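Practice problem 4.
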C-alpha cells in the first residue's frame, strides 16, 4: 500500500449556489486539489448540485478534463438471479420474486438506475473502457483505464479500487456520503470480513460471484477519516476528496478492532444480520 502523509482538513470556498456550469465544476475540482496527475473513483448525485447546465455530460466533461484517470461504478443489479435455495448465512432471502425477469449481461448494458446519471454518462464516453464483471463492473476514462480494469475478477470485484489506492488514487464524493463509498469494501475484505455469494445471468450461463456486505453503515467511518478529507462545495453539492489508501487503512483498522464496525443496525438488512451471525459461528 502506498505511504501517505497526513492531510490536514482544509475548508474550500463555497461556489455560488444555483445554476452550475462547466467552469464552476472545473474550478471546484481543482480547488479540491485534483490535477492532471489525479486518479479518482467518483461517486456522485447529479441532483445534489442543483441545476447543472448540460446535465451529467457537463460533470463528466469536467472530471475528464481535470483528472488523469476517472473511474465510476456501473453496476448492473438487473442481471442478478435469486435461486430457490442456497448457502446459509448468505445475506439474502431465497425464492423471492424480486428478479422475475433478469436481464442478460452484455458490454453495453446500462448501469442500474440506482447508480446514477453521471456513471451512465461516463460509460457512454467515446474513450470509456468497461470491465466485464456481470454485476459489479467499472467504467474508466484515462491512460490507466485498461490496467486498473484488468485487475477485476469474480472473486475480487473491487480490485480496481485497490489498484487506485496502490497508485495514490483518491475517492471523490460529489453530493453523496460514505453509504455509496465502494472503496470501503476493499477494507472489509482485507480485515477478514467474509463475502457472500450471488449469481448473475450471462448469455453463456449463470455465473457465481463474490458479493460484498451492505454499505448502509459506512457513514460510521466519517469521524475516523475526517482528518484526511479535503472538503469543498460545487453549487449545492458537498465535495469530499479522500486518499483511497488512507481510507482503506482507517476502515480496516476499525473493523479489526471491532468486527461489527460499519455494519448497519437495520433489523431488515439481511447482509448485516448474517455478517453478525457469521461472527458468532466462527
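Answer key:
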Amino acid at each position: 500500500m502506498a505511504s501517505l502523509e497526513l492531510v490536514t482538513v482544509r475548508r474550500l470556498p463555497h461556489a455560488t449556489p444555483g445554476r452550475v456550469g462547466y467552469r464552476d465544476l472545473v474550478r471546484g475540482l481543482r480547488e479540491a486539489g485534483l490535477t492532471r496527475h489525479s486518479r479518482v473513483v467518483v461517486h456522485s448525485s447529479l441532483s445534489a448540485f442543483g441545476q447543472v447546465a448540460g446535465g451529467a455530460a457537463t460533470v463528466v466533461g469536467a472530471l475528464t478534463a481535470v483528472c488523469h484517470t476517472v473511474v465510476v461504478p456501473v453496476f448492473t443489479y438487473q442481471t442478478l438471479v435469486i435461486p430457490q435455495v442456497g448457502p446459509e448465512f448468505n445475506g439474502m432471502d431465497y425464492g423471492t420474486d424480486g428478479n422475475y425477469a433478469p436481464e442478460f449481461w452484455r458490454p453495453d448494458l446500462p448501469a442500474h438506475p440506482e447508480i446514477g446519471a453521471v456513471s451512465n454518462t461516463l460509460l457512454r464516453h467515446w474513450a470509456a473502457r468497461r470491465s466485464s464483471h456481470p454485476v459489479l463492473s467499472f467504467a474508466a476514462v484515462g491512460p490507466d483505464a485498461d490496467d486498473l480494469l484488468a485487475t477485476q475478477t469474480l472473486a475480487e470485484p473491487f480490485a480496481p479500487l485497490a489498484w487506485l489506492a496502490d497508485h495514490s488514487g483518491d475517492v471523490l464524493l460529489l453530493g453523496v456520503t460514505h453509504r455509496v463509498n465502494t472503496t470501503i469494501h476493499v477494507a472489509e475484505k482485507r480485515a477478514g470480513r467474509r463475502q457472500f455469494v450471488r449469481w448473475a445471468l450471462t448469455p453463456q450461463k449463470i455465473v457465481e460471484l463474490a458479493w460484498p456486505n451492505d454499505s448502509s453503515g459506512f457513514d460510521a467511518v466519517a469521524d475516523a477519516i475526517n482528518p484526511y478529507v479535503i472538503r469543498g462545495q460545487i453549487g449545492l453539492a458537498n465535495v469530499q476528496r479522500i486518499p483511497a489508501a488512507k481510507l482503506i487503512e482507517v476502515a480496516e483498522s476499525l473493523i479489526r478492532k471491532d468486527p461489527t464496525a460499519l455494519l448497519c443496525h437495520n433489523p431488515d438488512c439481511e447482509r448485516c444480520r448474517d455478517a453478525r451471525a457469521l461472527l458468532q459461528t466462527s
